[in-house]
Amino acid sequence: MNIHEYQAKEILKGYGVRIQEGIVADTPEAAAAAAKKLNAETGTSWFVIKAQIHAGGRGKGKINETGSNGVVLAKSLDEVPTKAGNILGGTLVTHQTGAEGKKVNKVLIAQDVYYPGESDPKEYYVSILLDRAKGCNVIMASTEGGMDIEEVAEHTPDKIFKEWIDPKVGLQGFQARKVAFKLGLEGDAFKEMVKFITALYNAYLGTDSSMFEINPVLKTSDNKILAVDAKVNLDDNALYRHKDLAALRDLSEEDPLEVEAGESGLNYVKLDGNVGCMVNGAGLAMATMDIIKLSGGEPANFLDVGGGANAQTVEAGFRIILKDPNVKAILINVFGGIVRCDRIANGVVEAYKKIGDIKVPIIVRLQGTNAEEGARIIDESGLKVFSAVVLKDAALKVQEVLAAQA
Amino acid sequence: MSVLVNKNSKVIVQGFTGSEGTFHAQQMIEYGTNVVGGVTPGKGGTKHLERPVFNTVQDAVEATGANVTIIFVPPAFAADAIMEAADAGIQVIITITEGIPVKDMMTAKTYIKDRGVTLIGPNCPGVITPGEAKVGIMPGFVFKTGRIGIVSKSGTLTYEAADQIVKAGLGVSTAIGIGGDPIIGTPTKDAVELLMNDPETDAIVMIGEIGGNYEAEAAKWIKANGNKKPVVGFIAGKTAPAGRRMGHAGAIIGGADDTAEAKMRIMRENGIHVAESPAEIGSTMLKALGKTVNA
Q1: The domain containing residue A360 runs over which residues?
Q2: Which of A41, A296, B72, B86 could form a disulfide with B112 if both were Cys (CB 3.0 to 4.6 A apart)?
Q3: Same domain (yes/no): A287, A215
Q4: Given a cut of 70, is residue A282 above it in pLDDT?
Q5: Residue A16: inside a domain, yes or no?
Q6: A154 and A81: one domain?
Q7: What angle do CA A93, A96, A99 make, to 5 degrees?
Q8: Predicted model pTM
Q9: Whether residue A371 is found in the same domain as residue A317
């Protein structure tokens, strides 16, 4: 599960990680009040206004309606309400949101931390994530802060340092020191970075996260180390033991169809294609999407009905797929194991009759337990549903159906 | 021979009396698997499915000599169940449970590391040696006996592969569902290695999906090991967008190397016969074995 920057920073602060302070606001008036409060608390007289959406690239991204960037600087209290107003309620398009962009409901009013002083401020990169191959967590750090880490990895891989954490003993002091030294820090800034990394790791463990990305981490002109941005990804499987974190979920950031599918126990991901699909099992669902593509279509979705598919889940799946106006055909691909194909076939027929007036052709491929019985039910239903047993035949049917529409 | 499980395996079921455990234990017994008992803490001393129930894995091992376990324990307690099995000396631990927190699996994997244990899964369909033992949740009738080994991250896609292998006139030696989670006990390479060394396996089907580097690692190992047996590979998720999780916790494209295209390219470079379409796993195997393919 992803959370917003302001939520992530709040969590980090709770674990003793120093952050760029800020107050979240959802109207220009609230933004002005937040700035005033922040001025009183931190003394900052410049304010950074940051759109809160679950996507990166906000600084370079643009608000469709006003042309404002997703992150802007206000150099006085007076500028805050107007500049916040140019972001709030707008649609922010960044390289990560796709062309349709994301609606901004909240902005974070944050203190200016790039103030001048005894030394120059400098940006770093620190992340903690799961190394799947090694089966342990790894701290990744780089002197190239504020940049897209994938570009750093491509052009200057020698500027990324990795420190793997042994799950048996956790992060050791020498490891935090190693990272801080490799970042070229000394004196107070070095000590601050060691503290920062240690606290960050505790936060990572304590929240059952699968990824923390702090980019940039800033060394201020007075040698403090703090998180200017924070991207946190929580392990969905562990949310049952973190009710407080589970409550941070922002449904407005998710596709409404995906939310609805989740409520019906379906695993659905909306895509941009023209052929919908409904499958049991994640791997077979992806393979079915691939078959659609090979048959000349584009998958409109990923939909895994899981191991307990029945008439209700089939109906729910149908309804969700049919809400997507781009769908020109639907391929149902079920390999029956515990799930019996005759039950799925009956579910399809029932759902079809209940929903009524389905305009798009449906191809049902049933294989495995009671497959022939399932095919017979489909064929004798008198509905505009094609049945197939072998995957190859299903692919050919999709091709035919699409060709007939072209 | 075959690998991991056979007719001599003495299998216990952890989470024996729960609904999942009961249903699948029944199915395994009907298949002919030698299920010698089960574990449900607090129900020791009773009988379930005409087999003894034990409070601890240790009790079960002492009383029955069990050497294989299958775990249906709920996600919050599954990592604990894995460690208990390893502690009791079980050699093959097959974990079906889906949704175990990553942190718990990290602990479990670290715990079993030096204990000479093979962990399969979690979040997998299990292991089947057709005609001998089914220790999993797969439909047994799909898997006919034969000499093709199958390694797969996915459940139903494993059944699909087995079905195509059987329809091609071949059969299965052992099929291993390794699981779709970010941390699993036996990565692709280790499972492939088992089948490579199995005298009853002539060729291998290796099925992966987007995310992680297990297939690439396995492909490189296969080449370094001299491509001793033909391997057919397929990667699901060519059409999956980057950054979106496709069902399995592990199925998410993070970098350039874990896309389906990249994995298929690496497989090809290492002498693996890649099936471009999931409908062509069976026919690609026939070609790899130098046999004629009937259209």
Answers
A1: 256-405
A2: B86
A3: no
A4: yes
A5: no
A6: no
A7: 45
A8: 0.93
A9: yes
Residues A149 and A242 in one domain: yes
Count of domains forming chain A = 3
Residues A60 and A101 in one domain: yes
In a domain? residue A267: yes
Domain match, A222 and A335 both: no
Answer whether A129 touches B (CB < 8 Å). Answer: no
Q: Minimal Cα distance from B295: which residue of A?
A: A392
Q: Has B248 been annotated as catalytic?
A: yes
Task: Indicate left, alpha or beta for A192 from its phi (over 0: left) and psi (-120 to 50: alpha).
Answer: alpha
Distance CA B45, CA B63 (A): 11
Tokens of A221: 């002109």
Q: What is the pLDDT of residue A191?
A: 98
Those residues with Cβ within 8 angstroms of residue B226's Cβ, 6 or more apart along the chain or in another chain: none
Average pLDDT over residues B54-77: 98
Which residue is closest to A149 within chain B, CA to CA? B255
Overall size of chain B counted in residues: 295
Alpha-carbon distances of A56 from A59, A147, A252, A377, rounded to whole Å: 8, 11, 17, 49
Q: Give yes or no for a contact between B2 and B174, defined as CB atoms under 8 angstroms apart.
A: yes
Residue A228 in tokens: 């200017």
Whichever domain contains A193, its CATH number is 3.30.470.20
On chain B, the residues whose CB falls within 8 A of the CB of A242 are: none
The structure tokens 């949101």 sit at A97
Is B249 part of the contact surface with chain A (CB cutoff 8 Å)? yes
- Among the listed residues B72, B65, B66, B62, the one whose alpha carbon sits nearest the alpha carbon of residue B27: B72
Q: Tell me: cis bond preceding A167? Omega within 30 of 0 counts.
A: no
Q: pLDDT grade, residue A310 (50/70/90)?
A: confident
Same domain, A51 and A151: no
Alpha helix stretches (DSSP H) within A4-156: 5-14, 28-42, 79-85, 149-155
On whether both A260 and A401 belong to a single domain, the answer is yes
Kindly give, in sequence order, each residue whose CB lies less than 8 Å from that of residue A346, ignoring residues fewer than 6 positions away: A311, A377
Boundary-marking domain end, from A111, A132, A164: A111
pLDDT at A307: 76
What count of other Cβ atoms lies within 10 Å of the Cβ of residue A368? 25
Mean pLDDT of A285-310: 92
Distance CA A99, CA A55 (A): 13
- Confidence at B104, pLDDT banded by 50, 70, 90: very high
Q: Which of B24, B48, B248, B273 is catalytic?
A: B248
Residues in chain A: 406
Name chain B contacts of A395, Cβ cutoff 8 Å: 277, 279
Query: Which of A111, A142, A165 is the last residue in one of the domains?
Result: A111
In terms of CA atoms, which chain B residue is nearest residue A206?
A: B103
Q: Put the strands of the sheet holding A62-63 in their side by side order.
A: A62-63, A91-93, A102-103
Measured in degrees and rounded to the nearest 5, phi and psi for residue A304 equal -105, 115
Helix (H) or strand (E) run with residue B86 in it? helix B75-87
Answer yes or no: is A117 within a domain. Answer: no
Phi, psi (rounded to 5 degrees) for B164 = -70, -40
Domain annotation covers residue A12: no
Residue A139 identity: I
Q: Which residues make Cβ contacts (< 8 Å) with residue A249, sequence separation at least 6?
A: A1, A3
| ipTM score above 0.90 | yes
